[in-house]
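User: Sequence in, structure out. Go.
Assistant: Echoing your sequence, followed by the structure tokens.
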Amino acid sequence: MTGAAAEFPVGRRAASRRDPSPVGEPIVEQNHRVPMRDGVELALDLVRPDIKGPLPVILTRTPYDKTMMRTASMAQCRRLAQAGYIVAFSDCRGRFNSDGEFFPYVNEHDDGFDTIEWIAQQDWCDGNVGMLGGSYNGQVQWQAASRVPPHLKAIVPLVSPPSSLWRNEPIFNGTLRMCMGEWMVGMGHRSWHDTSFAKELFSAQRDYFEALPVSSLGSRAGVNNSWWREMLEHPTLDDFWKRGQYDHYRAMKVAALNVTGWWDMNFPGAPLNFEAMRRDAATAEIRAGQKLVIGPWPHHINQTRVLSGVDFGEDAVVDLDGYIIRFFDRYLKGVENSIDDELPVHVFVVGANEWWAEEDWPLPDTEEIAYYLHSGGRANTLNGDGWLSTEPPSSAEPADEYIYDPTDPVRVTWQLEEGPVDDRASTTRDGVLCYTTEPLAEPLDVVGWVRCHLVASSSAPDTDWHVRLVDVHPDGSARFLCHGALRARFRESFEEPTLLTPGEPTTFEFTMDAVGVRFLPGHRIRIEVGSSWFTQYDRNMNGGAVNPFQESEPRTAVQRIYHQPQLASHVVLPVIQRRQRRQ
């Protein structure tokens, strides 16, 4: 029944569980050459069961070395082979053994289509093709699906970025994700520039993050990269960026199992794609063939039950491969295995530490409740006088003020991969405002998208806003939940920026990422507001240059956050009241 706590469809993954032994060791075939429409050939390997075909094929396309991907996922390949699938791994254009020139995003639509249709014509394929993979390897699945290849029946994009390259990465609402620079440096030209890249990506602070302007990051890192330079010559969401999008949902004819974690660096991709396909996909059958799983995981999903000292319980790690195989059995083999009868959405609610099975996302019966920012004019730091409540301001409370200096930004040294980090260290500076509720008397379930309505002004013509939602535990630890950001010039349009009138109160509305949390009795809800989150995001120089990615002259800004009648800053939380009624 929807709304009830539920076990994940195939149960938890026991620590002692072993993958089944196949009938004979799978056969590996290396370096098939796959011709693209322009004559470029891509390299492709196969892992196939030692049985007669033809069989359905599951394809992973990757810029990260098909040989490495194949070797690292051999346990999963064995399990898929045991289930009667051939697994194919292909290097993306211009990477490792594939020909051509690599340019992120732009060739993946057509190359994906051509690879799928070539596979479907081989005598070892029965004409049914699926795709599997995570991160960039998930994104390329959607890009291929947007071209509607006839033989692509099902995809499993794990931790995929969303369609728009301005909704998450490389650009998040106008701010540059600094990890994109690290990705560029590590990727090299055709193969790894840094041999530790695969294991240590986004795990440390890099000297080249300090480069000004940020477009010179490659030079400071000693890397000559043409696509990085070209990207940062496009400071608005123009056709250069739009060619990487894949949001042709009305044409798509592919079932999709979307998987992510609450602390996934690509979080919004999975729920946004699920929502769009459920609403817009080509047929009713395809709309019904969409699944969504959100676990208590970072970008490397389903690996551990503990993050930053928070234990999510024995149900946190599940037999995800088993669910994936059931999904492929239904859509590549036509097996009637009851997966159609199960609710399509499974979300793990942190705090309650339980899975919920749901009819849809956003969850049915969500009640949006505004939480208003208040203070006596000194909400600076976690020790300030800011508070948060469901009561709007009834009088002209004084605005909160802080200085944002791009040469001395708020530095957040932890990584999103660390999950529910205690982020108190980043709220000890005057440049971060904190608004906190009283301790809760009853549990409060908040599951869904968080929205921010910020009324603010700056003495500069452009600046950034960063807003975080945290769960303050009784011991004082402030556990990070989700974040939103907006470059002020893009408050009305990413295509046509509008600079600020210095000192004028202005409304900034943006969707933050989502949460799935039960705030427990004695806990408090906190909203943190600032203008920098370095080195996760680039620093706005505040000068209003036409291209902020090429701006290097810093300008100090006086920032004000307003909370008074008619200028009531607030966040909107998606509260699920029905959970409390069944306690």
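User: And one key feature?
Assistant: The first strand starts at residue 27 and ends at 35.
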